[in-house]
Amino acid sequence: MINSKLPQVGTTIFTVMSKLAADNKAINLSQGFPGFDCYPYLQDLVSEYLRKGFNQYAPMSGVEDLKNRLAEKTKILYDIQLNAEEEITVVSGATEALYAAVTAVVRNGDEVILLEPAYDSYAPAVVLNGGVPVYVSLNLPDFSVDWGKVKAAITDKTRLIMVNTPHNPCGYVWTQEDLNTLAELIKDREIYVVSDEVYEHITFDGKKHLSLMTHSLLRERTFVCCSFGKTFHITGWKLGYCLAPKDLTSEFRKIHQFLTFSSCTPMQYALAEYMTEPSRYIYLNEFYQKKRDLFCEGLKNTPFKFTPAQGSFFQLVSYGHLSEESDYELAVRLTKEIGVASIPVSVFYHDQKDHKMLRFCFAKDEEVLEQALGLLSRPLF
């Protein structure tokens, strides 16, 4: 029998709830994927490059044209000029980027600070590399960072801090004060940062995403991990990228080349051509704000309490004022009895801390959201 490296890890909650939704013919607002297709022009570009014979290995670090487009995007959005060849790496999804970044810097016994609730791939990546997760809970009810707790968690063994903005599952968007405080905490220590910024283009109500690259000190210490899938509605393509200074990128690529070596060639060329028009990502927040607003307006007709998400394509709701039912039990019951699947927020905590909250994904067509809201407005408790 294999002595498991991850004995506590089973099938992810996203797989579990998606299957439960399918089995019960429920509306799946659980797993975080768009319920609509990418733009036909992008599909046409992939077909074009397939037919042109771009079907062999891409360069290990990514197609040159695509890295150049990413450098242009970073300049447009953040006024930062990256070296496309030395500081940008195209990978097979942001999850791979996160794993490669952790692997590049974490050694046996190193401590890694994780801010909870946290995406479920963070801790396994740390453990598989011999690291020790150190959990710090975010503040309720807004899920802002408790910097006093973070400071208290830092020791001589702290090697890495993993952050996520805009945040999944809660939607919190980091402020300039957050960036400044983090920089102050690590400036005199050899501590690195992995920043999960896959929802960088999805912020609401005028809030701006502040990439950790925009802070001069953090830029030198940080692996910024991003996703084409979340931006262009192509999660099934499993394409992402990592932005990091030259020395960090060098170590990152040593890991990447033995994880996937390179990522899908025709899709990289298609994205490079598609991104020549910046409006295709600059106005994404407006597209998703309409969906968030529609969903939140409909939630007013349900018994749930909520604060509109600042970013991402997830909306949290709370029900502790109505029931002591566990969030997992409620998520299952709503899927089976009401016909709407969600994710219990307790799964984002290492100890399954239950704050009586559910996460809904509103990255769906309007008619689907309206149908789900109608079901959720029925008697639930």
From TrEMBL:
Family statement drawn from the similarity comment of this UniProt entry: Belongs to the class-I pyridoxal-phosphate-dependent aminotransferase family.
CDD domains: AAT_like
Known cofactor(s): pyridoxal 5'-phosphate
One Pfam assignment: Aminotran_1_2
Cellular component aspect of the GO annotation: cytoplasm
Official protein name in the record: Methionine aminotransferase
Keywords tagged on the record: Aminotransferase, Pyridoxal phosphate, Transferase
Domain (Aminotransferase class I/classII large) ranges: 26-373
UniProt GO MF annotations: kynurenine-oxoglutarate transaminase activity; pyridoxal phosphate binding
Domain of life: Bacteria
